[in-house]
Design a protein that fits this description.
Layout (H helix, E strand, L loop, with lengths): L6 H7 L3 H13 L3 E4 L5 H11 L5 E4 L9 H14 L2 E8 L3 H9 L11 E5 L5 H10 L7 E5 L11 H13 L4 E5 L12 E4 L18 H7 L3 E4 L1 H4 L4 H21 L1
Parallel strand pairs: 1-2, 1-8, 2-3, 3-4, 4-5, 5-6, 6-7, 7-8
Helix pairs in contact: 1-2, 3-4, 5-6, 8-10
The structure holds 6-hydroxyuridine-5'-phosphate.
6-hydroxyuridine-5'-phosphate binds next to strand 8 and helix 9.
Length: about 260
């Protein structure tokens, strides 16, 4: 199964340069930790990125929650990412028809396609959404790797097994551009070239009162995650850098146990 393969083997199976870069960062830094920097000012995101950058492979942001967004902020964030060697994922969860997502990725105020290494999207609209994202990339200076939200961590999510199996087919049909999943389940029908990222990870809470459901790093890495995504477990900690270091160590140890089995 894909779960037993080392990240270096997975990197060889991947045909996408951005995914390969992420695998290499994970190997070089011995980190399969992504942090969700869900903070609402540019300064706060930059300060967090600087504080935890050493320990993460990926920083996930929601650009539309930042109150004072500017493209200079993105340039500053990219500098920090370069210095600390991590990639950036905009968790936009594109979910509209191809025409609309092409404009949302390739234009607008945020110009996501000009700076994000990865973007997330839902399979709900059908495979035209990937064609739309590819069309949007034509207006951008570079390509972006796409991550399909297969199923969700929240209570009562409508992403049941039938939806998930139809959605992952979209990924399999667009391997050049879709390189992985946000998932809670192991998607065993999909091969080892795809990255699996799992949010809903926190060791000090079971939920957040708004439907989020948490598990430990060990639980999700054993079940389905190559990369754990931790938000408030790090951003809400008294010492975010220490929390990131702890999640990093635990998640990578769990990965090592998984591949050594
Ligand atoms: P937290 O660890 O603070 O609950 O944050 C989780 C992050 O992962 C949020 O940014 C959220 O948007 C994202 N996320 C999630 O929680 N569940 C999903 O199924 C998909 C997500 O992208």
């Amino acid at each position: 199964s894909w779960k037993a393969l080392h990240f270096s083997e997975r990197k060889k199976l991947s045909q996408n340069e951005i995914a390969q870069r992420l695998y290499q960062v994970m190997l070089d830094k011995e980190s399969n930790l992504a942090v969700a920097a869900d903070l609402t000012s540019c300064a706060a995101v930059l300060a967090l990125a600087e504080a935890i950058g050493r320990d993460i492979c990926l920083l996930k942001i929601h650009v539309d929650i930042i109150e004072d967004f500017t493209l200079e902020f993105i340039m500053d964030l990219k500098k920090i990412a370069g210095r600390h060697n991590f990639l950036i994922m905009e968790d936009r969860k594109f979910s509209d028809i191809g025409f609309t997502v092409s404009n949302q990725l390739g234009g607008g105020l945020y110009r996501i396609g000009d700076w994000a290494d990865f973007v997330t999207f839902h399979g709900l609209p059908g495979s035209g959404i990937v064609e739309g994202l590819k069309t949007g990339m034509k207006n951008c200076s570079r390509s972006v790797a796409c991550i399909l939200v297969a199923d969700m961590s929240s209570k009562g999510a409508l992403t049941g097994p039938e939806y998930v199996s139809s959605a992952v087919k979209i990924a399999e049909e667009h391997r050049d551009d879709v390189v992985g999943f946000v998932t809670q389940t192991d998607l065993s029908s999909c091969d080892a070239s795809f990255l699996r990222m799992t949010p809903g990870v926190n060791i000090s809470a079971a939920g957040d009162g708004l439907g989020q459901q948490y598990n430990s790093p060990e639980e999700v890495v054993g079940r389905c995650a190559d990369i754990i995504i931790v938000g408030r477990g790090v951003t809400g900690a008294a010492d975010p850098a220490a929390a990131a270091a702890m999640y990093k160590t635990r998640a990578f140890a769990a990965y090592r146990r998984r591949v050594d089995k």
